[in-house]
Amino acid sequence: MKDPLEDQLKLVKKIQEEKCVKSYKKLLGEYDPLIKSLSSSFKSKYRNTPIEIDDIKNVMSFHFYKLILDYDKSRKKAFPSYVKEFLYYRTSTWIKHYVTLNHQVMNYSENNVDNNSQSIDKMYLNEELLDTKNTSSLSKLEVQVIELTKSGMTIKEISLKLSINIKTLYAAKSRAIEKIQNNFQTNR
Question: Which residues, including other chains, have CB under 8 Å from residue 145's CB and lie 6 or more apart?
């Protein structure tokens, strides 16, 4: 009787040595139930985000391939345990990188800054929310970011104007939006 783990390790070795696509697809098929299960779990956890389940599956497939290439049998960790643990960790890290605690998509790459910030602005930066009683708890930087965003500037443009790192501005904007929302709900 064949040991399924030994078969998987043979496929791993073939992928590592030869970058064999056929072996990767076969191994990916064996782990497809795990990937679907974890993807559903992440999607339900982050259900209020625009991240689709197919995006999560694609990211997991990419990380699965990287895990295969990085796997070292001599570390005495069984391949299925290794995959489950690190696939969860790497995907979780990826999602957290793009999603704040408020489930707002945050893309830190400068290439896509303009597209992502505009949709968030339309949702949150309306006149009703920006009433002075809702913005009184904001820091000077948070007020500047909100006012400049409201005037139509992108985070990238604000970064250049204020000479402040984009990540710092995203953090300030996120905090400001959270404070505005909390104040708005309290003052209703």
Answer: 155, 158, 169, 172, 173, 176
Question: What CATH architecture is 4-98?
Answer: Orthogonal Bundle (1.10)
Q: Which fold has domain 110-187?
A: Arc Repressor Mutant, subunit A (1.10.10)
Residues forming CATH 1.10.1740 domain(s) in the chain: 4-98
pLDDT tier for residue 98 given thresholds of 50, 70 and 90: low
Asked if residues 46 and 103 have their Cβ atoms less than 8 Å apart, the reply is: yes
Q: What is the pLDDT of residues 48-88, one digit of tens each?
A: 666 778 888 888 888 898 899 889 888 888 899 999 999 98
Count helices and strands in the chain by DSSP H and E runs? 9, 0
Kindly report whether the global pTM for this prediction surpasses the value 0.70. Answer: no
